[in-house]
UniProtKB/TrEMBL annotation:
<keyword id="KW-0472">Membrane</keyword>
<dbReference type="InterPro" id="IPR003661">
    <property type="entry name" value="HisK_dim/P_dom"/>
</dbReference>
<feature type="transmembrane region" description="Helical">
    <location>
        <begin position="6"/>
        <end position="33"/>
    </location>
</feature>
<dbReference type="GO" id="GO:0005886">
    <property type="term" value="C:plasma membrane"/>
</dbReference>
<feature type="transmembrane region" description="Helical">
    <location>
        <begin position="259"/>
        <end position="278"/>
    </location>
</feature>
<keyword id="KW-0597">Phosphoprotein</keyword>
<dbReference type="GO" id="GO:0016036">
    <property type="term" value="P:cellular response to phosphate starvation"/>
</dbReference>
<dbReference type="GO" id="GO:0005524">
    <property type="term" value="F:ATP binding"/>
</dbReference>
<feature type="domain" description="HAMP">
    <location>
        <begin position="280"/>
        <end position="332"/>
    </location>
</feature>
<keyword id="KW-0902">Two-component regulatory system</keyword>
<keyword id="KW-0808">Transferase</keyword>
<dbReference type="InterPro" id="IPR003660">
    <property type="entry name" value="HAMP_dom"/>
</dbReference>
<feature type="coiled-coil region">
    <location>
        <begin position="324"/>
        <end position="351"/>
    </location>
</feature>
<keyword id="KW-0175">Coiled coil</keyword>
<dbReference type="Pfam" id="PF02518">
    <property type="entry name" value="HATPase_c"/>
</dbReference>
<dbReference type="InterPro" id="IPR036890">
    <property type="entry name" value="HATPase_C_sf"/>
</dbReference>
<keyword id="KW-0418">Kinase</keyword>
């Protein structure tokens, strides 16, 4: 550490402050902790006494001993109920109830002169006890015990033995001191209280709580004594006399003082070490700022210094962050603009290429029929081969129909690309639609000696939700394409399958030459043909599959084309409609 450095200054200031705080904590503990503990304990006991007096007044006399015992165990107190003359009411808070020979026997545990080992450990509901004692009532239900045991010993002469199962009990719990010894001291505390009762008489009659200190002369233990009336009027209805030990807090404070004496050197060492670590941590922003500046110099904006303090370090960090964000944003904008420019150039080149291909395709598709029409028309005009006039006119009409079909397909495709087509979906029978379209190709099938095989997984008709006119156009184009490329004397398979997620899949497969892999991705493009020679004998305008693609996309269909072992298979999906056919 430098002599005038920030780290050394932070180290000294931090060490002094922590040691000062530690000294103040020790001083406050020695001066105020015992007082705070006493005040807190008495306030809690006062609240519980108020609740106890309300419950005691509403509790039947048979249950008052239970309430008293529970209060003493829960609050770590010795408690007595006094009458109007400040004489102790004979309520024994501790008892055990046994079920023996069909009746319940209450064993009263005496509070005076009873040692803790007099009561066996581990007593709980359902335990078996053997008690030797003397019955105190005519019905033999209340017993003064002499021996309480869980194992049988010899019965003394003059005593009665009772054996039974514990059904209920309230026993003294271990508290700050021996509870039975502390309970035995309450008579001495009451006698000392009687000597001072006159000065507190008026307060008690007004329902106020009276507090006094009392000390056990034999052990020297200090107790806090709290007395309050059980009744709210001045006539009185008895008093609650509560005594609780204050010795534990005194012992705890003494132990804490000794503990701090031994702990102080360790704390000082830890303070020095932690202060040194803290001072180095605080100086880390300089290192972070230096590293950040180096990254900015290399145009690396991936990391930014996270310094949120309001000093010069924080201000410099925020300035560097702002600079980094501005530079990064500018570079990203430049990169994005460059990428967009490249995409625009590529799109322009592609559009130009498509335009050239479209013009070439249209020119090619129109040039040949126009040349044929012109040649036959000139022949008719010159009167050449007049016997073939009807044949020439038929060829002229055929070529005119071909050009008209091309123009109509172009108009149809332009509507799809302009999204001017709106579907009119309804429930239709897919099997009926395919069969209807297949029947229209009977002449082409006979000319190539082809057969149709329609295979459905079920006998009944399969219904889908689709536009019937557009789907007829799709099936017509796909079947026409399959017939055009099928080898002679083969079978064209049409398979309709119901999928598990509510879709119908239609597969149209022919037997013929497969499509090259590089052509599969472009098969749906307009004017794209697998035959590079553009043999007109195969027919078609080159727009059918492009129209099929647009119609299936409007139906949100999943469509594809794959090569199979026999040839090529086209497939598409439609949503199933389980309702009945409307038309």
């Amino acid at each position: 550490m430098k002599r005038q450095g920030v780290v050394l200054k932070l180290f000294i200031v931090t060490t002094v402050l922590i040691l000062l705080v530690f000294s103040l904590v020790m001083l406050a503990e020695g001066l105020f902790f015992e007082r705070f503990y006493r005040s807190s304990k008495i306030n809690t006991l006062e609240r519980n006494m108020n609740q106890f007096t309300e419950q005691f007044k509403q509790t039947e006399s048979s249950e008052q001993s239970r309430l008293l015992g529970s209060f003493m165990n829960h609050n770590d107190t010795s408690t007595a109920i006094l009458n109007n003359r400040f004489e102790r009411t004979p309520i024994n808070p501790y008892f055990v109830k046994l079920q023996s020979e069909g009746k319940t026997i209450t064993i009263r545990i005496p509070m005076d002169g009873t040692p803790m080992n007099y009561i066996p450990e581990g007593i709980e509901i359902g335990s078996m006890l053997v008690v030797d004692g003397i019955f105190m009532d005519e019905l033999d239900t209340i017993m003064q015990p002499v021996v309480i045991q869980q194992t049988k010993v010899s019965l003394e002469e003059g005593l009665v033995r009772v054996k039974g199962m514990v059904t209920d009990f309230i026993l003294p719990e271990l508290r700050s001191y021996n509870p039975l010894y502390q309970d035995a001291l309450i008579d001495d505390a009451i006698r000392d209280w009687l000597s001072k009762v006159e000065q507190y008489q008026s307060r008690l009659q007004n329902g106020a709580l009276v507090q006094m200190d009392w000390q056990d002369k034999w052990s020297g233990v200090n107790y806090a004594v709290l007395i309050r009336s059980l009744a709210e009027d001045s006539n009185g209805g008895g008093y609650v006399f509560v005594m609780t030990s204050l010795q534990p807090v005194g012992e705890a404070v003494g132990v804490l003082k000794q503990y701090f004496v031994y702990l102080a050197p360790i704390i000082v060492v830890l303070v020095v070490i932690l202060s040194l670590i803290y001072s180095r941590i605080v100086s880390r922003p300089l290192v972070l700022l230096n590293r950040s500046a180096g990254r900015l110099a290399r145009l690396d904006f991936t990391e930014q210094p996270e310094i949120h303090s309001k000093d010069e370090f924080g201000e410099m960090s925020r300035s560097l962050n702002t600079l980094s964000q501005n530079l990064n944003t500018t570079l990203m904008e430049l990169t994005s603009a460059n990428m967009k420019l490249q995409e625009d150039v590529a799109e322009k080149q592609r559009s130009e290429q498509l335009r050239k291909e479209l013009i070439a395709n249209i020119s090619h598709e129109l040039k040949t029929p126009l040349g044929i029409v012109k040649g036959f028309a000139e022949g008719l005009q010159d009167g050449v081969a007049s016997e073939k006039k009807e044949r020439y006119l038929a060829l002229i009409v055929n070529e005119t129909d071909r050009m008209n079909a091309l123009i109509m397909d172009l108009l149809e495709l332009s509507k799809f690309e302009a999204r001017a087509i709106r579907l009119q979906p309804r429930s239709i029978s897919l099997t009926t639609l395919i069969q209807k379209v297949a029947d229209s190709f009977s002449q082409q099938l006979e000319s190539k000696h082809l057969q149709f095989w329609i295979n459905t997984v079920e006998v009944e008709e399969l219904f889908v939700k689709a536009d019937p006119r557009r789907m007829e156009q799709v099936v017509l184009n796909l079947l026409s394409n399959a017939i055009r490329h099928a080898v002679e004397k083969s079978v064209i398979t049409i398979e309709i399958k119901r999928m598990s997620h509510g879709e119908m899949t239609t597969i149209i497969e022919n037997t013929g030459s497969p499509i090259a892999e590089e052509d599969l991705s472009r098969i749906w493009d307009q004017f794209y043909r697998v035959e590079r020679s553009r043999d007109r004998k195969s027919g078609g305008t080159g727009l059918g599959l492009a129209i099929v693609k647009h119609i299936l996309e409007l139906h949100e269909s999943k469509f594809s084309v794959v090569n199979t072992k026999q040839g090529v298979a086209f497939s598409f999906t439609l949503n199933e409609d389980r309702g009945e056919l409307h038309e």
